[in-house]
Specification:
By secondary structure, this protein is mostly helical. It has one domain (35-212). It has eight helices and three strands. The protein has helices at 2-20, 37-48, 64-81, 97-109, 113-122, 128-141, 145-153, 198-212, and strands spanning 54-60, 86-88, 184-190. Strands 1-3-2 form a three-stranded antiparallel β-sheet, covered by helices on one side. α6 runs antiparallel to α7 (145-153). The longest helix has 19 residues, at 2-20. It starts with a helix and ends with a helix.
Length: 213
């Protein structure tokens, strides 16, 4: 009996030692490889744009062209199936203008009250003409072709809010939704409903899984 007691104590000691080395983290992304650009980008996307009603899918093939084509086809098919309200599979700041508008609106709604009030003031009857005149002056004296092109499409400078986000706006051919070699790509799939409980979300995930086959 005494020997059995020592065995039990030994097992408990091993379990306690194992628990002391166990890493607990509420953010699952912190448990993934930190040196992966995709993991870092996905973490920042979830922080700035994501919601609890989203599902993340991964597409991987042997080459970049096949991965890009497969991700685009999957995104379109998901939208047509009615299982998704939105699918973002590439840099949202270089893709669909409607997606960009939605993301910018989300960013503005999450700005401090004084910043949002200043934005609303730009569209008041007294300020609109002044704001447009200031934009024309900026375009006239600017030596940066990209700034002139941007202001011509965004005269009220709504896109400036993107500079305050934690997620950087990639330039050139960079795409935070793709791996460095382009053979893997993530898709952020938004549920076709705005809010739901656990069981409805679980059912939706099951429907998507069954649809994917």
């Amino acid at each position: 009996m005494k020997r059995l007691g020592w065995i039990v104590l030994g097992i408990v000691a091993v379990l306690v030692a194992g628990l002391t080395r166990l890493q607990l983290d509420a953010d699952i992304f912190n448990l993934l490889p930190r040196d992966s650009r995709m993991v870092q980008s996905l973490q920042l996307y979830q922080q700035d744009f994501g919601s609890s009603n989203e599902l993340v899918l991964l597409v991987r093939t042997d080459d970049e062209a096949s991965t890009t084509a497969a991700a685009e086809r999957l995104a379109q098919a998901l939208m047509e199936s009615g299982l998704a309200a939105r699918v973002i599979w590439r840099n949202p700041f270089r893709g669909n203008p409607e997606e960009l508008g939605e993301l910018l609106a989300y960013l503005w709604l999450n700005q401090p009250p004084d910043a949002f009030a200043a934005l609303a003031d730009r569209f008041s009857d007294e300020r609109m003409a002044i704001e447009l005149e200031q934009t024309l002056e900026r375009m006239a004296v600017s030596f940066q072709p990209l700034e002139v092109a941007r202001l011509s499409m965004d005269p009220f400078d709504l896109g400036s809010v993107a500079g305050n986000a934690s997620m950087p706006v990639p330039s050139g051919g960079e795409d935070p939704f793709a791996s460095s070699d382009g053979t893997a790509r993530i898709l952020a799939v938004a549920a076709p409903f705005e809010s739901a409980g656990f069981f409805r979300l679980r059912g939706w995930v099951g429907d998507v899984e069954a649809w994917l086959g």
